[in-house]
């Protein structure tokens, strides 16, 4: 008490002087000027300017962009109550999904939420990769190697492991690829602005990672903008088809969402790939710079809608499974993405936060929580793997339970039955773009028959006639 009283006595004159100055001085000599400067420039721009001034090199901002342009919150789900009834038992709502059903060994998952590619070394610590793999396994879903190689630790903890055949070359050859439950040919990433060089100096690569990547002492590694040796579109088509011929598991292609999306899809359509992954600009990463994160690419929602529209218009929707990723964080986001046409969603940043949960106290307030998760994190050895895996599994189970309740409300039997008819938006432009109903347009009696003709309605009670 005495210490607090003394501190207040010491601070009181300084606070009085500062308050008097702010209330009486003109702006040039008024500390309140920093408030208006921050309003004009934004605190983020000021802090990033300071970092650039100090470091003199490109910044690396973990977890992606704070710029979120996908209008998920403008879309709502459509519950049914009387003219059609809710599904009777939410616990019986089927959440299973299949990636690559045409493949000899399709990837069958209990839930449509997957852990996205976050690489050991390039992004995350081995401890966090093990935790993500174990947590995903507990929830009956898959995790992804990211731009790295298959480690025994991740493979042993994962029930289903998707591996990225990527532009750095660390995951290649039968020894690696034969250990996977699905192969993902990674050609771009939303938070990296598509495909750019991603170098990693040799002095950042520890001994275990060096052995995993088969590097010499002191040798660095680079994920290149192009697949080495691939010089034109036909080279990529041949590579994808060759992969399909060699392996029975689903083979997919991952690209970043851009305004050239339809052109990219037209190339993929010439291949025998089983699935497509599209990473919107709101996606996360460990080390790309703010310029690429904030200013390059196409938002996730727009990428999804345009991809589904193009596939449907070209009678290709049944050929490819579609996974969408990039800034998806809540069960509501997941449901809306599925209703817009995705077969599954990838999550990354929110999965890390869920896994760390209360362990963030080991870092805060001195350090940001990512220090527990990153490969370069100063506190990554403090992560309790079992605890992180359990918390991630709980997060996924919680999301699924909420999704089942929402699916029950809209009168469907499974998450795979969700469609655009289950959505409505308060934004007229979004309604036209996404081909969903506008909330300001009333329903007409003649529309009821059409609303009751979908396959999901076959086992529903007959609707009451409108008067």
TrEMBL record:
GO terms of molecular function: glutamate synthase activity
Pfam families assigned: Glu_synthase
Q: Give the GO biological process terms.
A: glutamate biosynthetic process
Entry similarity comment: Belongs to the glutamate synthase family.
**InterPro entries assigned to the protein according to its UniProt record, in alphabetical order:** Aldolase_TIM (IPR013785), GltB (IPR024188), Glu_synthdom (IPR002932)
Q: Which residues form the Glutamate synthase domain?
A: 105-412
Q: What is this protein called?
A: Glutamate synthase domain-containing protein 2
| Entry superkingdom | Bacteria
- Source organism: Sporolituus thermophilus DSM 23256
The UniProt annotation puts the region (Disordered) at 441-467
Question: For bias kind Polar residues, which ranges apply?
Answer: 455-467
Known PANTHER family for this protein? ARCHAEAL-TYPE GLUTAMATE SYNTHASE [NADPH] (PTHR43819)
